[in-house]
Amino acid sequence: MIIVLDTNTLISKNNKMITLNEGSGGKQMQKLIEKIRDKLKLKDNWRNINDDAATLKLKNINKNLVFTTDSYTVNPIFFPGGDIGKLALCGTINDLAVMGAKPAGISLALVIEEGFSEDDLMKIIFSIGEVSKKTGIPVVTGDTKVMNKGGIDKIVINTSGIGFAKNIISNSGLSASDKIIVSGSIGDHGIALLSKRFDYETELVSDCAPVIKESRAVSKYVTAMKDPTRGGIAAVLNEMAEKSNVKIILDEEKIPVKREVAAVCELLGLSFYEIACEGRIVCGVKKEYADKALKILKKFNNDSAIIGEVSKGRGVFVRTIVGMRPLEVPAGKLIPRIC
User: Which end of the chain has fewer CB atoms < 10 Å from its terminal CB, N or C?
Assistant: First the structure.
């Protein structure tokens, strides 16, 4: 039976429930986002609504306004290399940076559970302030709400950001013969959190950091760029390949993965391709500029590497010592609450 409301919304008595799968960065999340976008019927003059940030052409100053928002929930809240506050500010800054934008201001909204430690809250705010100071990007507005005990799990942070860009970098600009570059070792953030959560003894720290400088340094050479957060490079590269209508072939031996990351992934039965980073960029670069772009990125992180190439076709594949295999879009419940 279908009930018709006065808002013209259709709700079935067999209404599907949202699960953690819809928030993990894989196929289910993308399907949910597509449903939401379809219902909203996003139009008007905004562009790049399927990228990390939406853009609006400002003809009077010949620039693009770039706007993004994201919400953050993580467990543990404090982890090796950062906390939820640092994660939130860096995440929003990075979404602007990979679009080619210079961030101008950030909003900060806190939803806090009753009984949350004020000392811990101030530590989180201090981390946010440190990132703001380091990058020169101000937090200019915000909001705070407190929920009843049990109404939320400790704290959730929403950050939105605006910036300006003369030229927009989309994640759909790949073409055949481009090289794929990653700006450092992959999976550090997700595995650092899991190691903390399960009390594994490692020296891993999250890669959580702003990527403004490195993204800007190579922006004139890139054809597409994105930061590999939820779903890791598996999700990001599949999205880029699909939007660009190309095939990506990765060379497994060239992918930078720390020994500790590989060990914990093997122990837990995880794929390091699907583990989140929070301070890396993945970009496509024209073949003739690949070595130059790599040299620039190595100044920021010596683990930067050319990990693959683009060709005609569809999908993402990994070249291994035993042959070629597909790298699918992550599906189902990945690693909960790491970004």
Answer: N
**18 located within any domain:** no
Buried-exposed string 116-147: b where 16+ CB fall within 10 A, e elsewhere: beeeeeeebeebbeebbeebebebeeeeeeee
**Mind listing the pLDDT tens digit for each residue in 154-201?**
999 999 999 999 999 999 999 999 999 999 999 999 999 999 888 888
Q: Could you list the residue range(s) of the whole structural domain that residue 159 is in?
A: 61-165
**Shared domain check, 184 and 144:** no
State whether 187 and 316 are in the same domain: yes
- Number of compact structural domains in the chain: 2
Q: What is the pLDDT of residues 197-256, one digit of tens each?
A: 888 888 999 999 999 999 999 999 999 999 999 899 999 999 999 999 999 999 999 999
Query: Please, are residues 272 and 262 in contact by the beta-carbon 8 Å criterion?
Result: yes
Residues ≥6 apart with Cβ < 8 Å to 31: none
Report residue 325: phi and psi, to 5°: -140, 150
Is 33 a domain residue? no
Unique residue bearing structure tokens 């049990």: 150
Is residue 314 a part of any domain in this protein?
Answer: yes
Pair 200, 240 in one domain = yes
Between CA 68 and CA 138 the distance in angstroms is: 15
Q: What is the reported pTM?
A: 0.85
List the CATH number of the domain containing 68: 3.30.1330.10
Question: Residue for token digits 């070249």?
Answer: 319
Distance CA 318, CA 255 (A): 10
Checking 258-266 for CB contacts under 8 A at 24+ apart, the result is: 258/185, 258/187, 258/188, 258/204, 260/191, 260/195, 260/202, 260/203, 260/204, 261/185, 261/186, 261/187, 261/188, 261/191, 261/204, 264/191, 264/194, 264/195, 264/200, 264/202, 265/187, 265/191
